[in-house]
Amino acid sequence: MSISREQEFKTTLTKTDFLAILNQFDFEPGFSQMNTYYDTPTGAVKKAGLGLRIRQFKDRAEQTLKVPNKNQHRDLEEITDPLTSVEARSLIDQGQLKTGQVTTALAAREIDPAAVHPQTQAKTTRSVAHLKAGLLTLDQTFYMDNTSDFELEMEYHDLPQAQVFYDTLLHQFNIEKRPVINKVQRAFMHVHDSQAD
Question: 69, 3 in Cβ contact below 8 A?
Answer without folding.
Answer: no
